[in-house]
Each structure stands twice: as structure tokens, then as C-alpha cells.
User: Fold this.
Amino acid sequence: SQTARINLAAHEVISGATRRLPAAWKRAAAAAEDQSAARISADLESAVSSVDISHRQPGWWGVASFFQWLFFILTILGIITTAAAAVLIFFFPEILWTALPNMRLSVLGLIAAAPLVIGIIGSIITSVLAANARRKGADDARAQVEEDIERAVHSAAKDNVFEPVTRLLRKHRETYDALS
Assistant:
């Protein structure tokens, strides 16, 4: 379990730090370890739970959404105008020649297809830019959460493992110095 791994890691740190101490001091370290083991799991859980991982919608989302809708509408409009031009050219060419006597069919086709082309190209560009911005935003958010969790875990480990061991080692050093 997670608690067992935490307690084992704390035990390894404490054992390593106190391996050269006399037996009585090692027993004191073991007692301090037992006291901290009871608190560390709950403190770590609390520390990790306190990290803010909420979702924040970036400002560019609204702009990207606007352009995606704009290019979608242009694409639909382009499909409609291209289809209408094709119907007129193939099935009712006499209407075109009387309404637009000097216009070439290629120009009419370009005018009809322009919204379609602009819509498709704009959609592709918007999607690529949004994907890159989304990826960068997700990476930045992940890095921030990792940093916050690491800071919270470090603080809990310091309070529950390192501080008690440091106090014990300091006390041993003071006793040793006083007796020498």
C-alpha cells in the first residue's frame, strides 16, 4: 500500500541517518519514527489534496471558438454557393448568360468556391494553432501541478521525517560534545 511505501522510505532515511549512533540513540530514533509514521500518511494526503488542480479556461479559447464558427459558416456557405453555381452552369446556362452576359464560368466558379476555400483553410489554421496552444497550456499546467505537489510533499516529509531526525541528531551531537 501507499502508506507502507511511505513508512518504508521514512524508515530507510532514518536508519541511514542514525546507523553510526549508539543503540540507545537508535532506539530513540525508532520511537521518533513510530510517532512520525502515524502522522506522515495523513499529512501527505492532506498536502497533496490541498494542491489546486482546477481547470482554468484560457482567454484564447473564446477567440479560437469564434474563428472556428466563422470558418465553419464560411465552409457551409461555400458548399451552398458552389453547389448553386454548379446547378446553374450545368442545368440552366441560359439564365447565366442573360443575367451575367460578360462573366466567364471560371470567374463564377471562383466566386462561388471562395467561401469554401477560405473556410477550409481557416479551419485548418485555427485547429493547428489551437492544438499547439492547448498542448503548451496543458504542459504548463502539468508542470505547475507537479511543482506544487512536490513542494507539498517536501513540506510534509520535512515536518514528519527530517525535522525529528535532525532534532535527534542535534541532541546526540550536543550530548557527545558535552561528554567529550
Notes: The helical segments are 2-18, 23-49, 60-91, 93-99, 105-179. Residues 105-179 form the longest helix (75 residues).
